[in-house]
Amino acid sequence: MSVAESPIRALLRHAPVIPVYTPASIEEAVQVASALVRGGLPVIEVTLRTPAALDAIRAIVRNVPGAIVGAGTVLDAAQVEAVRAAGAAFGVSPGATSRLLAAIKANHLPFLPGIATASELMAGLEAGLDTFKFFPAVPAGGVAMLSSFAGPFPQVKFCPTGGISPATAPDFLAQPNVICIGGSWLTPKGLLEQHDWPAIEHLARATAALRA
Ligand code: 3PG
Q1: Is residue 212 part of a domain?
Q2: Please, which residues have CB within 8 angstroms of residue 27's CB and are 6 or more apart in sequence?
């Protein structure tokens, strides 16, 4: 009998890279998500770093077919409930506290908690999780750290995020314990300010081809 994959792992398999996007407005969010989906990157992390974030998630869920929108920078139990209510398909956090882990479990929300050490990883395993954001990936040890985790934690998969660039992305994606990577380079400030949605679509298409 095969064991079913965890819901978060199944979601993350849809694309090699998750764009980490901080929305300035609802209108911008719908355009950005549409461009990313057209470019082949349907799994999007919308960070809760602006007042528009929850409404942006709602608007993407309603208006962008094919988008798998998650909420990022989820820091506490109240935000876990708020993003689930907004329709987010999953949540992401930079770290993991015991209260946050309990809220994830209580809300049945597919979740990618951040870890940077073996002890944080073990706390996540104790909470029943098997897939983590490795954050901040480059400052916390990069590919060498992921490779070191593979020995004692063969059952774990990671989405490294933080400091990864198009140039270093292939090295991360080549790690057997990496399911996908995250990065903000797909939604650069300049392109957002210019409303250059075709350029964002182009960036997404080039990035999606990293794991063709
Ligand atoms: C974040 O939460 O800001 C992400 O880790 C993005 O990191 P990056 O800007 O280095 O891609």
Answers
A1: no
A2: none
CA–centroid distance, residue 31 to ligand 1 (Å)? 21
With respect to residue 20, please indicate whether it lies within any of the assigned structural domains.
yes
Is 159 inside any structural domain? Answer: yes
Sign of the torsion formed by the C-alpha atoms of 28, 31, 35 and 41: positive
Residue 155 is part of which domain span?
7-203
Which residues are catalytic, by number?
45, 133
The residue contributing the CA closest to ligand 1 atom 4 is 162
Cα(42)–Cα(204) distance, integer angstroms: 9
Q: Is the pTM of this model over 0.85?
A: yes
Is 19 within 8 Å of 184 (Cβ atoms)? Answer: yes
pLDDT above 70: percentage of residues in the chain? 98
Asked if 186 contacts 41 with a C-beta cutoff of 8 angstroms, the reply is: yes
- The verdict on residue 178 lying in a domain is yes
45-81 per-position pLDDT tens digit: 999 999 999 999 999 999 999 999 999 999 999 999 9
Q: What is the CATH number of the domain that holds 38?
A: 3.20.20.70
Q: Which atom of ligand 1 is nearest to the CA of 184?
A: 11
What are the backbone dihedrals phi and psi of residue 23, each rounded to the nearest 5 degrees, phi first?
-80, 135
